[in-house]
Amino acid sequence: MPTASFSLLLCLSFFTYTTVHSKLLSQLTSPYLSPTTIFPHYQNMLEAFKIFIYTPDEAFTFNSSAESLFIASLQNSTFVTHDAEEAHLFFIPFSSNLSTRSIARVIRRFKENIPYWNRTLGADHFYLSCAGLGYESDRNLVELKKNSVQISCFPAPDGNFIPHKDISLPPLASSQAPYTPANKTASFLGYFRHGGIKESILVKELVNDPDFLIESQPSDLLTYKERLATSKFCLFEYGGDVSGIGEALRFGCVPAVITDRPIKDLPFMDVLRWQEIAVFVPLGGVKELKRVLVRTCGDRHEQMRNLGVKASRHFVWNELPQPFDSFHTVMYQLWRRRHTIRYPRRVTV
Fold it and tell me: Which residue of 148, 255, 265, 347 could cross-link 161, Cys pair, CB 3.0 to 4.6 Å?
């Protein structure tokens, strides 16, 4: 009997070790926070997710290409239903330049004439606003801001984003070309395309450092790809131009985000392990920047580079959405936020 008990204990210990080891191995080779669940949950979303789009009072437009692509993709997708009773979420469309007073009137109209908002005070609703909404005193705007899911652009203005509820759109990259391994030795520790912001303190400090390549714009797209493929890190100032962060991941250039505060609005924060695909550098000058980057070189850099390439497919915007691209990953985040309460359907007699 003791022998049998010992054998059972040994078996259970081996099973526990194998399970833990498998989880650790999947985390080391996957860019996802939950590598074992994302794919079945994604498939469930494709099969079941339904969204009802409110009819706007007037035609709506958006200021950014990412916003326009998202709404066009949503409207033409199989996620849209015309039966509000089967919807998981409700989309409130309004123009980017609509005043807060006008937005408050839109919500007031929904509350007075349409029953769905009042069931949850907007908790199963979402809206699109690139700049995001700040805090207003109007009760309708307070409910919209605090309860509904906001989809904004990255980076969102400080104070206009609520972590764990809101979602940020990844920037629209200039190149959607797939990654092809370059097998080239890195020529630079860091590459910084600063977009012509000459007054940037970082640009002034780095421009004469031979370890970094700093330029306003590369001469052509092919040159830009070459810069990414031959640099260990690509530098981005949080709050500045981050449009190339998806391209950096795609071409194996680990993003190094320089920031003076914790970042809470990264795209796909509840999907990707950002700490494993990017470096976050506190604002502290060139010496601190180089210290962090050099410390991350070697095997650690290669692991981040490989995971970043795997994650890069989520940063691609397509005119016709493709599996796991930006549109579908945003939809997956909405699916995770769908309201859990299901209301009884109306019965017609």
Answer: 265
